[in-house]
Write a structure and sequence with these properties.
This protein has 249 residues and is α/β, with parallel strands linked by helices. It has eight helices and five strands; from the N terminus they run E-E-H-E-E-E-H-H-H-H-H-H-H. It has one domain (12-245): Neutral Protease Domain 2 (Neutral Protease, domain 2, Orthogonal Bundle), CATH 1.10.390. 46% of the residues lie in helices and 8% in strands. It has a five-stranded mixed sheet, with helices on one face. The protein is globular and about 55 Å long.
Length: 249
C-alpha cells in the first residue's frame, strides 16, 4: 500500500520503516542502516525509560527534491529544501529526510549524515512522551548529545568531525539569539554537539537516560533556572560547577 502523503514511494522495513522515492533506492539502504543502528543504540542508552520499552512508533521518509513540497509538515508552506525535520502532523509521526542535505550543514565528513539522522531520531524518542516547553538550547542539546552518544556506541569517527567544528562561534549555547541566519544556526548546533560530546566524556552516557526521564516527568514550563537545574542534576555530582566552567555554556 502506498504511504500517505507521498503515493508511489517504496517501503523498506526496519525498526523505523523507511519510505523512499524509487530512484533513491541506493541512498535509502544507507539511510535505513543509520536508522536501524540509531534506534537500537538509543533504545539501549535509554533503557527502561524508552516509551513502550522499545523504539517509538515512528516512520521516515527519504524525499526526492521534486517531492519536497508534498512531504508531511506542520505548516502550509514547505520547509526549506535540504533541512531534515521531525513532524507529528501525521500518525504515526515521521522523520522527513531530504535527498541531499543543504550546503549549510558543516563540516562535510562521513559522520555528518548519520549524526543528522540520529539527531532527528532522538527528537522522536524524546517526543514519544509529552514534554513541556523548554529553552531552545536544552531542547536541541538533548538530541545533539544523544547523536554523539550513538556515534560513540557504533564507532562513527566523531573526533574527526568535531575537530573541524568552529568551537568559538562568538556566542554560547545559552546566549544564542535563535533568529539568526542558517549559517549561525549551524554553528549553534555544532557548538551543542561539541558540548554534548564533552558532557558524555566527563559524566558518561548514563546522563542521557536521567535527562530524558527528568524531562518526561516535568509538568510545568521549564524556564532558564529550571533548565540549568535539570541538566546539572542529570550530570550528577559536580555537574553544576562543571557546566558553569565550560566556555560553551
Amino acid at each position: 500500500m502506498d504511504p500517505w502523503p507521498i503515493p508511489g514511494y517504496l517501503r523498506l522495513d526496519g525498526p523505523v520503516p523507511l519510505f523512499h522515492a524509487p530512484r533513491l533506492a541506493e541512498g535509502a539502504r544507507e539511510v535505513l542502516g543509520h536508522l536501524t543502528r540509531g534506534s537500537e543504540a538509543l533504545a539501549g542508552l535509554l533503557g527502561a525509560g524508552t516509551p513502550r520499552r522499545g523504539v517509538p512508533t515512528v516512520r521516515a521518509f527519504l524525499v526526492a527534491e521534486e517531492d519536497w513540497h508534498r512531504a508531511p509538515r506542520e505548516n502550509a508552506r514547505p520547509y526549506p529544501p535540504g533541512l531534515p525535520y521531525f513532524t507529528r502532523s501525521v500518525d504515526p509521526p515521521a522523520l522527513v529526510l531530504p535527498e541531499r542535505l543543504s550546503p549549510v550543514f558543516r563540516p562535510r565528513t562521513t559522520a555528518l549524515l548519520p549524526l543528522t539522522i540520529w539527531h532527528e531520531l532522538a527528537h522522536a524518542f524524546l517526543l514519544g512522551r509529552g514534554v513541556v516547553r523548554m529553552p531552545a538550547w536544552l531542547g536541541e542539546l538533548v538530541p545533539q548529545a544523544a547523536s554523539a552518544a550513538v556515534a560513540r556506541r557504533v564507532g562513527v569517527p566523531l573526533g574527526e568531525h568535531l575537530g573541524l567544528v568552529d568551537a568559538e562561534p562568538g556566542f554560547t549555547v545559552r546566549g544564542f539569539g535563535g533568529r539568526s541566519g542558517a549559517g549561525d544556526q549551524m554553528k549553534f548546533q555544532n557548538l551543542l554537539l561539541v558540548f554534548g560530546a564533552a558532557m558524555l566524556e566527563r559524566f558518561g552516557e548514563g546522563l542521557l537516560a536521567r535527562l530524558f526521564r527528568a524531562l518526561w516527568e516535568e509538568e510545568d514550563v521549564v524556564d532558564e533556572e529550571r533548565a540549568l537545574g535539570l541538566l546539572a542534576g542529570s550530570l550528577g555530582a559536580g555537574g553544576a560547577a562543571w557546566l558553569l566552567s565550560r566556555p560553551e555554556f
